[in-house]
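User: I'm writing a tutorial on reading structure tokens. Could you give me a worked example: one chain, its sequence, then its tokens, then a sentence or two explaining what the tokens reveal?
Assistant: Sure. Here is the example chain.
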Amino acid sequence: MSKRLKNFLLLLGLIALSFLTLRVVIGSTGEFSFDKFTQMIRGIKPLWIVLAFVCAYGYIYFEGLGLRFSCKFLGHPISHGQSMIYSATDFYFSAITPTAAGGQPAALIIMMTRGVPAAVAAMALLENIIMYTASLVIIGVLCFIINPAFFLSFDVFSRICIIVGLAGVGAMFLTLESD
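And here are its predicted structure tokens:
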């Protein structure tokens, strides 16, 4: 089988899997129907769809770039195309599994089947999670600095939980620094 035919069949399989995933999600919720979904899609402005695709591609691209640099640093360089495949695998399986738990294991399996040693793959993916979490913390802090009124819009219990969470993360950070 030629590479072009194989890629075409894989693309068809991906489209079928995407459609099947959509059908399962729609069928599993009683309040959501295919008609409501198509009506919602028709109401979306095309510019926002294009921007969503650009952002999703950017996420996959930059995560792949991070995986590529991590693997290279760990002594097992991977190609740009491979890094994009691993990142897209993580992105896809994170999107379809509960609590986004499937992305990292799926990417790890794909990386290992393509010759990346398990230790290198696990460390690269762990570093990826750490950097992702750090970016969320930084973005959250910047949002509170830029718009402190947003914090005040939460109810009292939520504000207390946020403060306790920040204190806990800060205490853990200080503990790491003292070691």
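What the tokens reveal: The chain has a mean pLDDT of 84. DSSP finds eight helices and no strands in the chain.
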